[in-house]
Amino acid sequence: MRTFQLNYSDVSGGAARAAYRIHHALRDAGVDSIMHVDNAVAGDWTVEGPTSARAKARNAVRGRVGSLFRYTLRTGNPIIHSPSVLPSSWPRRLNVSDADVIHMHWVTGEMLSIKDIGRIRKPVVWTLHDMWAFCGAEHYTEDDRWRVGYRRDNRPGHEAGFDLNRWTWRRKRIHWEHPLHMVTPSRWLADCVRQSALMSDWPVSVVHNVIDTAQWQPVEPSVARELLGLPRDVPLLLFGAMGGGCDPRKGFDLLLAALAHLRGEVDGLELVVFGQLPPREPVDLGFPIHYIGHLHDDVSLRLLYSAADLLAIPSRQDNLPNTGVESLACGTPVIAFDTCGLPDIVSHQHNGYLAQAFDPVDFAQGVRWVMKQRATGGLRQAARQCAVERFSPDVVVPQYLDVYRQAMEVQGT
């Protein structure tokens, strides 16, 4: 079987890293997989990106045109919008290729236009990394237009100007005449597909994102802390950059509220922030803070997760964040709210703690509960076992092969 993995980038961004891992898990299992991208940065010979100056310039122009369209929508919603307007050469290239299956991932942002997607004649499997496919131009949304249709009379009050989302959704209805086989990394996103006005009768399968559990293994916490210069004998709570506070989906305001309830409650608790260097004016969160900065290689990330006692994911809305999967693979429990795709990562009081949705008090209680268990090591063992049972290549690759076969049978190939 020969598959083409199609994604805007190879390793830049969460969706790209997830797609890249799927690509290599397939190759390791003997599948002839080639990854095609518009932005190749990994230097991987199995990834094919634009080579000519003309092709690179054309990609840049498509991105700028998409930005101009986004400016026509005046909205208080900070979520990125992708109208996917300009055509590309991808449909022609894919249709004449020798690929048995086209596996699309994050192909928006003007990599493929909406019309391009409808012009692909090969069997297509599409792994969703957000809500864009069944929404308008938005990648995430909290309103219900995607469930009932984007009508003139149900536009949310925070939008004005040209109704970019309705225009984009209507173009999807026109150009996507034949159902594609959808894959979602979480049960929540699969339910969204089934409930959507656009794709309610399309086939959808839940296949978790893969991680190489042979490579992503726990490091002895004391060794990891020594190598990273972190204190050895105190409880450490890890979370992502506070700069993410500009996106309300990430829930950093909820994390800050939970930390306020933890002051004086967990002896010696210290915070570790990754993805951010120390700011000029450090924020006083009531605990000592260690800023790790940006870590780009897997070895450093393994050390970081292994050094922590707990990873906090306070998101209001999330699919299947890579950080949660990586943390479990390194044997580090995760705390999150019981919402969206996060229950696919966290089993309550087994490999972490699922707090009541958006309740900072219960989130703080979860931190207390996990820290009380840290001496036994049971949560770490359960976290690691969960990663192997849910996200390892031995589990995920056969599921994708089954989806590929289903897509090919429908297409009659």
Give an account of the 3D structure.
There is one protein chain. By secondary structure, the protein is an alpha/beta fold. It folds into two domains: 2-210 and 392-411, Rossmann fold (3-Layer(aba) Sandwich); 221-391, Glycogen Phosphorylase B (Rossmann fold). It is built from 14 helices and 15 strands. The chain has helices spanning 14-28, 53-70, 90-95, 114-119, 145-148, 164-175, 187-195, 221-228, 252-262, 298-307, 322-329, 360-373, 378-391, 393-411; strands spanning 2-6, 32-36, 47-48, 73-75, 101-104, 124-127, 159-161, 181-184, 204-206, 236-240, 270-274, 289-293, 310-313, 334-337, 352-355. The strands form three sheets. The protein has a seven-stranded parallel beta sheet with strand order 3-2-1-5-6-8-9. Helix 11 (322-329) packs across helix 13 (378-391). The protein is globular. The model has no long low-confidence stretch (mean pLDDT 92). This is Glycosyl transferase. Pfam families: Glyco_trans_1_4, Glyco_transf_4. It comes from Thioalkalivibrio denitrificans. Keywords: Transferase. GO terms for molecular function: glycosyltransferase activity.
Using brief descriptors, characterize the structure shown.
15 strands, 413 residues, globular, alpha/beta, 2 domains, Rossmann fold, 6-stranded parallel sheet, single chain, 7-stranded parallel sheet
